[in-house]
Structure formats: C-alpha cells, structure tokens
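We modelled each protein-ligand pair independently. The example shown here corresponds to the flavin-adenine dinucleotide entry; the chain sequence is given first, followed by the ligand as SMILES.
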Amino acid sequence: MRALHPVTRRNVVGGLAASATALAVPHVARAQSVARVAVIGGGFAGAACARALKRIDPKLDVTLIEPNRTFTACPFSNEVIAGLRDLEAQQFGYDRIAGEGVHVVAQTATRVDPQARTVTLADGTSLSYDRLVLSPGIDLRFDALPGYDEAASAKMPHAWKAGEQTTLLRRQLEAMDDGGVVVLAVPANPSRCPPAPYERASLIAHYLKTTKPRSKVLILDAKDAFPQQRLFEGAWKELYAGMIERISLSQGGRVTSVDPATNTIITEFGDHTAQVANVIPPQKAGRITDIAGAADKTGWCPIDPVTFASKLVPDIHVIGDACLGGAIPKSASAANAQGKACAAAVASLISGRAPDMPRLTGVCYNIVAPGHAFSLAGFYAPKDSIFVEVEGGGASPLDAPREVRTREAEDARRWFATITVDSFG
Ligand SMILES: Cc1cc2nc3c(=O)[nH]c(=O)nc-3n(C[C@H](O)[C@H](O)[C@H](O)COP(=O)(O)OP(=O)(O)OC[C@H]3O[C@@H](n4cnc5c(N)ncnc54)[C@H](O)[C@@H]3O)c2cc1C
C-alpha cells in the first residue's frame, strides 16, 4: 500500500510553503492552501467524485475534464432499445456541477505526465494537478474479436456505451421483419455490468413478443454462469417461452469472429446469421489509463482499495469501471460509491489525515418486462489489498408474488432518479 502523502511544497499551490511561518504551521492549517485535483471522465464515478471533493473541502480546486456536454447513462438504456423509454430520459448535463464550484472543462484528456503532474487536453492546453483521478469508464477492444472493429459496430452495434449506438440498435429492431433472429454476442468477464446483456435479451424479447411474435433472441455467451441466472431463466420461461435461446460457453457459445458483410456470427461450433446482431466485444479500461501508465497487461487498473491510488503511478487514483475492483461489479452504483469514497480519501491525503476504510454498497436492478424486476445488493470492503464482498448483501427471492417484482421495478426507477441526482446534481 502506498504511504500517506504528506502535504509538501510539491503538492500545495499557493504561497504558504514559501514563508517560514508556513513551515511551522501544523498539517490542518497548511491543508487550507489550495490543492488542485483533476478528474478525467464525468460519468457516474467521476461526476460523483468531483462533487464530493468540493463538498468535503470547498477550498479544493477541482477540475472535471469531460468532452461531452451531455452525459448519456447506460442504466435503463435497455428500455430505450426496447422502445419503452426515450433516450432524452438518459441524458444529464454538467451545469449543476459547475454551479457547485467545479471547473468543468469540455475537452478530451489526451496525455498525462505523472512526473510533471500535468494533463494535456485535445486543444493542446495543459493543466497541473496535485492529485489526479482517472474515471474514463471502458473502451471496447476493437482488436480482440476478429472481424469486429469500429466500422463493424456501425452494422453490428454493441450499444455498450449509451447514445448513438443505443438508437442504432433500436432502429434495427424496428426495421426487422417478424420472424427474424436477434443475436446477442456476450463477452467473458471482466466487463461492464455483467447482468445487463440478459436484461437486454429480456427487454428485446418483450418488444418482439408485443410487435413481432414469430421472432427470436439467441444469446451466444462466452460464460457459463451469470448473475441472477435462475431468476432470469425463470422469467424467460414465464414471460417469453420459446423466444430466448442461450448457448453457453461449454455448449460452444463463445463467439470467435464476426462477418459484418453478411451479419454472420461465428462460434467454435457453427455460424449464425442474424437479422439484428448485437455484438458486445471484450473491454478494457478507457485509453487514457494506458497513456497515464495506470493500466496493467490485463487492460485494467490495479488500485489500493483504501485510497483508490494506482498501484503503478504516483498521485493518480482510478475509480469506476476502469479499476480492478476485486469483487466489486462494474456498475453505475459501484462507480458512484467509489467516486465518493475516493473523494474522501483524496481529501484526507491532501490534508495529511489517514483515510477511512471504505465500505461500499452496490445495488443492481434487472428489469425483464415493464413492471417486473429483481435485484442484487452487495457490500464491499478492502481485504488483502483488494475489495472483497462482506456480509449484508442479498438478492431477490427466486419465488415471489408478482407484487414483489412490481415493487422492485418501482424501486429501480427510484434508484435511477436518486443516483443520477447524486452524481450530476
Ligand atoms: C446496457 C447497460 C445497462 C446497465 N445497467 C446498469 C444498471 O442497471 N445499474 C448499474 O449500476 N449499472 C449499470 N450499467 C453499468 C454502468 O453504466 C457503468 O458501470 C457505469 O457507467 C460506470 O461508470 P464510470 O464513471 O466508470 O464510466 P462512464 O459512466 O462510462 O463514464 C466515463 C466518462 O469518461 C469520459 N472519458 C473517457 N475518456 C476520457 C478522456 N480521455 N478525457 C475526458 N473524458 C473521458 C467519457 O466520455 C464518459 O463520460 C449498465 C451498463 C450497460 C452497458
């Protein structure tokens, strides 16, 4: 674990360190100097972190670097794909965060120099930091699945980053004839939101059942097991009998290549031609983590779970989907919790205090039809230099009356309203 970072001349901006009086003042007083924290990526993790930093210590100079003026959220985007929700309901701006005193810079970060502690932006300007938080989410690995590159994603959308890809998949489903097959290619872990492909399969089946009932959903899966599997499979039997087929890893479901020209998806055991192909490729931490030297050979970022400090680069913290969070799933819920815990740790380190041990909560709702959902909640704490799941979590019961599922669907909407306000103001 990295040692606590004392407040030194190096990490304090302002004139304090220049005077003899300043050298004599205790940590607390010195902490009142303006330290600069830059956060790269304004998603659930980064936005929550920037807001929390300012709340914990209003004197901190906090900059949030995010190229998009509007953030488009992935949770509930499967409902957009199924025609149950507008994309606008997924979108959030940064005005409130800026109103709280965070400098919001609408740029992509292109370079990080950990020695000079500077970030270079796409317009060529650079800014200095005392601590840097990386929260760029995921990048899709366009080199990992033969045939699937960025151009292929215009034909076979992944819709694993919400926005144009979400709308594209929706349009393809609308244009599909009744009787068509929608193929979902699901990658191995680690990946963003492991249960979301199965929620997507359910909601696509709901759309097909109500508009194109002779159609089918085929899941080609690089995994044998997935979260809440028995609940999903029970719901598929009850709601979509004969409409959803899944071929697991051990049944030969792993996709080995794709051919966008013919919409063909190839596995070790055969070829599948799709009317609509939703190919979710393998993933890695957002590219800026690699540029900063914070990603290891897995493509993800090892961190100290107490402070979220990178194990590879000094003065850099990594949160959200980009970090290797041990047992913590890559979810918006966890990203938001990590953002706030990291803000507390960074504020402590800057002021020379020992950071508290974080205990994080993650909750994940899976919606299988309008008014029908189930959930999984977990608690996570640092142990042996990673996050492990600790007692207190739980999942929806396998057998429950419909009112319970309806209540969980309402809870899911409340969760989304709460977490988006908590992250974006
Ligand atoms: C279909 C789907 C459904 C999901 N449903 C749920 C759900 O129900 N519940 C749940 O908890 N989670 C869900 N998730 C997962 C959730 O969306 C992610 O785990 C979450 O968004 C991760 O947050 P993050 O801040 O790490 O990344 P993101 O939210 O992706 O934010 C990353 C941000 O960084 C910015 N960025 C990247 N690189 C740079 C750079 N170089 N410079 C500046 N900015 C940069 C990006 O523009 C982006 O805004 C779902 C995901 C999917 C795909």
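Residues 1-32 have pLDDT under 50 and may be disordered.
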